[in-house]
Fold:
Amino acid sequence: MNVKPPSNAIPTTATAHAFEFSQVTSSAGEAWIDKNLGASQVATSSTDPASYGDLYQWVRPADEHQKRRTATITTLAVNTTPSHADFITATGPEGPYDWTIPNIGDVDDALHSAFFARTDGSGVCPTGFNVLTECN
Structure:
């Protein structure tokens, strides 16, 4: 895979996540970040570890748990803002991506959806961006 730098990149720095990225605009006028969140560079191949980026746990704010060098823990969290920055590896009752105990008040995933839709920098993405939806 050959990757060329975007010709319409606008260098900028994320306001809440302290990683540098360029903004690219699609032919439909949509703004995109040029690399994975937390990646140090745009991918040069599919096996380029510097382009892999961070590993976020579903609806968990950036608290350093997402960094690939973080410690791990097997204790499920009691809420979506644990008091530690460890990556939780235990499997919860809802499946392998469930890292919280049951009944945290998000039965219909409304909290998850609202969290991923944030564009103010308080969610996973830098200010002005949000996690893609199925429609995107």
